[in-house]
């Protein structure tokens, strides 16, 4: 131990007398290089961003990706369709105008003016009541025709029994005046019972009845095939239960409720998109109806997808995938 301590003291004294410059190592300097092969990943990435050409190329690719994503977003939105209105079909157009889907006159041709070509002739009917399948006040076309014919018979002029004293000229004038008066009265009645001149509440009530008659299973079971049974039900040993017979028109099936909600949604959408843009209550009611219809459509899509009922409902109401897929936002 003593020898070791003595040797350490000797080395320490020698090092103190030597200049420090003798122990400095002078390594050769490495030449500057742009090669990134010997650098780490972080240093290589930093050198990449320092390259102006690489930065410009990266910006171009990013801009092209942004444009491509915007185009894809527009294409997907166009494929899904409008979640509120869907596609305008002849049946939907008939709900808006009050005319039947097979009417020859369009909505633009239905003029509500009361101009007359001559004072002696009644003005033309603006509603085309003869083309309407449903009328106001719970009337139909046969009832209206029978009532007009009965009123015509009641208002006919009385013909004298003694034809020797009768004046044929006066009888002809009375018959002509009666025909003109009946024509004017029939025109007035047609305007009164026309849905084109009805209020929004009365038109909605008539549209609901039309939807029940169109999509109700009491009328569609006769010409639409039911959904094919699944494999699980075909191999099941449980006996099938017979459906309960209906006591009246079908008003509770999913397709009927979806049609009624669609008619109400279009009315609220027309009001919301107009001057009442800041109507918060109308916006909330519209959102509630949209989500209620979305739930029914999801249920119908799960149970009746591919069936004639589903196809008939989608084609007539013009509903797209956006009405039951994804999130529906009312902006």
Characteristics:
elongated, about 55% helix, mainly alpha, about 0% strand
Task: Explain the layout of strands and helices.
Elements: H1 2-17, H2 41-50, H3 52-80, H4 90-97, H5 141-154, H6 168-193, H7 200-215, H8 217-220, H9 231-234, H10 254-273, H11 280-304, H12 308-317
3D architecture notes:
- It is a single chain.
- The chain is an all-alpha fold.
- Helices cover 55% and strands 0% of the residues.
- It is built from twelve helices and no strands.
- Helix 7 runs antiparallel to helix 10 and helix 10 packs antiparallel against helix 11.
> What is the CA-CA span between the terminal residues?
91 Å
The strand count comes to 0
Helix content: 40-55%
User: SSE string, helix = H, strand = E?
Assistant: HHHHHHHHHHHH
In short:
The protein is mainly α and 331 residues long.
């Amino acid at each position: 131990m003593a020898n070791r301590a003595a040797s350490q003291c000797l080395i320490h004294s020698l090092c103190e007398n030597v200049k420090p410059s003798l122990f400095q190592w002078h390594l050769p300097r490495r030449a500057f290089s742009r090669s990134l092969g010997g650098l780490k990943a972080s240093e290589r990435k930093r050198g990449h961003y320092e390259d102006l050409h690489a930065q410009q190329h990266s910006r171009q690719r990013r801009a092209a990706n942004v444009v491509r994503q915007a185009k894809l977003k527009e294409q997907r939105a166009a494929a899904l369709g409008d979640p509120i209105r869907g596609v305008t079909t002849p049946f939907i157009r008939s709900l808006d105008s009050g005319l039947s889907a097979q009417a020859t006159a369009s909505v633009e041709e239905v003029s509500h003016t009361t101009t007359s070509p001559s004072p002696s002739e009644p003005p033309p009917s603006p509603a085309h009541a003869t083309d309407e399948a449903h009328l106001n006040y719970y009337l139909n076309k046969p009832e209206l025709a029978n009532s007009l014919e009965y009123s015509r018979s009641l208002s006919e002029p009385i013909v004298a029994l003694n034809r020797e004293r009768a004046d044929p000229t006066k009888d002809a004038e009375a018959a002509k005046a009666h025909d003109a008066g009946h024509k004017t009265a029939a025109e007035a009645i047609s305007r009164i019972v026309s849905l084109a001149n009805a209020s929004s509440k009365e038109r909605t009530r008539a549209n609901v009845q039309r939807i029940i008659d169109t999509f109700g299973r009491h009328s569609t079971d006769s010409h639409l095939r039911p959904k094919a049974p699944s494999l699980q039900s075909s191999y099941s040993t449980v006996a099938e239960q017979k459906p309960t017979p209906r006591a009246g028109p079908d008003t509770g099936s999913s397709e009927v409720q979806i049609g009624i909600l669609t008619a109400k949604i279009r009315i609220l959408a027309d009001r919301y998109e107009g001057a009442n843009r800041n109507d918060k209550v109308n916006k909330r009611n519209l959102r509630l109806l949209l989500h209620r219809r979305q739930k029914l459509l999801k249920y119908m899509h799960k149970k009746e997808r591919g069936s004639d009922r589903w196809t008939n409902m989608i084609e007539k109401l013009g509903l797209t995938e956006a009405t039951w897929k994804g999130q529906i936002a009312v902006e």
